[in-house]
Amino acid sequence: MTTNIPGVLLAGGLARRMGGGDKPMRQIGGRTILERVVARLTPQCDGLILNANGDPARFAAFGLPVIPDSVENFPGPLAGILAALDWAAANRPEVSLVLSAAADCPFLPRNLVARLSQACSDQTAQLAVAASGGQSHPVIGLWSVSLRHELRHALVVEDVRKIDRWTARYKLATVEWPATPLDPFFNANTVDDLAEAERLAALDGS
Q1: Which CATH number characterizes residue 179's domain?
Q2: Quick one: average pLDDT of 10-36?
């Protein structure tokens, strides 16, 4: 770990396409998706927190702080990102950036934080997001804690829901990763995706 950047794992989705429940708790190759995400990000981040609503006890085995959305009735990743920025401001005042990642992406790059933070520095950007195969993944990115009040206003007053709509207001660095032989931002949304994830885990050696 070479940064003072904490990470938030966004686990707020309802997994409707999988029949409900917590997507990150589904298993791939004998390990839960969330276990795989934690293993990928722990060496890169200065601590991890989990953004999830409902009973936090279901994640107790991971030993991570579980924070709910700080804006009520706002389904979507921006609410989880805001909750993480608020948490950082209250608990880690020395921190200026927070990494966000979807908790259902089991193959995240091992250089994710290093490359995103380098891009922020090189481009004097306030935000950075990951991309692969020409597609941006706005849920996976670096966020400036100093923007939390502006984000809250966008959510509560302006009813902004799409991440892209909000990030378009700021200088944004986009960092591309190759999507072959394995897209590091593959996420498991459906039952069929879980079967594909099993195949990719073998390819990845994980």
Answers
A1: 3.90.550.10
A2: 71
Distance CA 168, CA 154 (A): 12
d(CA 77, CA 13): 9
Residue 65 domain flag: yes
Q: What phi, psi does 104 have (nearest 5°)?
A: -115, 25
Q: How far is CA 129 from the centre of its chain?
A: 10
CA–CA separation, 77 and 51 (whole Å): 9
What is the number of domains present in the chain?
1
Tokens standing for residue 92: 């880690």
Could you tell me the pTM of the whole model?
0.90
Is 128 within 8 Å of 119 (Cβ atoms)?
A: yes
pLDDT tens across 116-159, in order? Answer: 999 999 999 999 999 999 999 999 999 999 999 999 999 999 99
Whether residue 2 is contained in a domain is answered as no
Q: What is the 8-class DSSP label of residue 10?
A: E
Beta-strand pair 66-67/48-51: parallel
